[in-house]
Amino acid sequence: MGVVWNALSLGDWLGLAGITITFVQLLRTSRVVRKTRAAVENASLQSTVYNVLVVAPRMGSIESQLEYAARNNDVDTFAALLRSYKDLAAELEGLLHQEQRHSGDARVKLQKSLAQVSAAKIPGGGQSVNDLFDRTKNVRKAVSEASVATVTLTARLRSDLQPPTPVKVSLVRRLISSVQGSGSP
Amino acid sequence: MAIDAGTAKVIQIIRRLHLATEQETIEWEETDRKQAYAYATKSSSVIVASVDNDGSMPFELQILDEKGNVIESLRSHVPDENFEVTYTTLPGGNDLRNLYELVRRSVLGIEETLDQLLAGLPELPEEPPF
Hints:
The complex is a heterodimer.
Chain A: H1 2-7, H2 10-71, H3 75-96, H4 104-119, H5 132-135, H6 137-160, H7 169-180
Helix pairs in contact in A: 2-3, 2-6, 3-4, 4-6
Chain B: H1 5-22, E1 29-30, E2 36-40, E3 45-50, E4 59-64, E5 70-75, E6 77-80, E7 83-89, H2 93-108, H3 110-119
Helix pairs in contact in B: 1-2
């Protein structure tokens, strides 16, 4: 064994040192990549949560307008609101795709409401009815349940939101100065 | 009649829905359309209905995607040409008819109602052995 070590030239030692340094750098790079990926995923999730928090309150608004239109037998408004609801529910469903932890119940309720909207038979435009409230009880119930599930979900998401991780000022300064090529202040 | 891959998959779904409904592992709901029932998962939903809202054939199954758009549909029967009181059964038609009937009984709680009715009536005398 000693013979082998003695046989190594300076060039061999330098080569070994180079390989070792490269290996260490690879490990450090993979660690940085992992941390960056986690940070991006976290930021993406937070962005989803904020979007859900923005969209969700509109559900409650449409729900109450549907009730009002049904009580007043306003077929045209009711049909227009259902179309708006369908678009909103589809948008929310798209957002919740990325949020898997708490959104299961809300997603099922949204799907139920979308099925009810599709099955609902609203009289054609211009027709007057006097029983819209009774005719639409299932779809209104489904929309109401989806709205409640969304409110519950937003409450949970809000409670899960963490403040952004504070960044050390000295680290930022060092980064800026290294980018600018000047000495540290 | 040759069945395309899409229809074969829908028929497979109908059979599995039938099994799941029989085993009471899924729950259907009434809709505002008469004789139409819906079942939803997290990412899709299914509507099974009597096309003419009269509870008899033809029946229709619609599969909705996560945005509520109909992505597949299947009818059980089509009226015969020039003679609309008879129908031709389409591929999967009998499966769909069976599913519709099972779903209707499940949603309306027909079995429970019949059992309650039976429970309130006297037992029939045992028939003598032959």
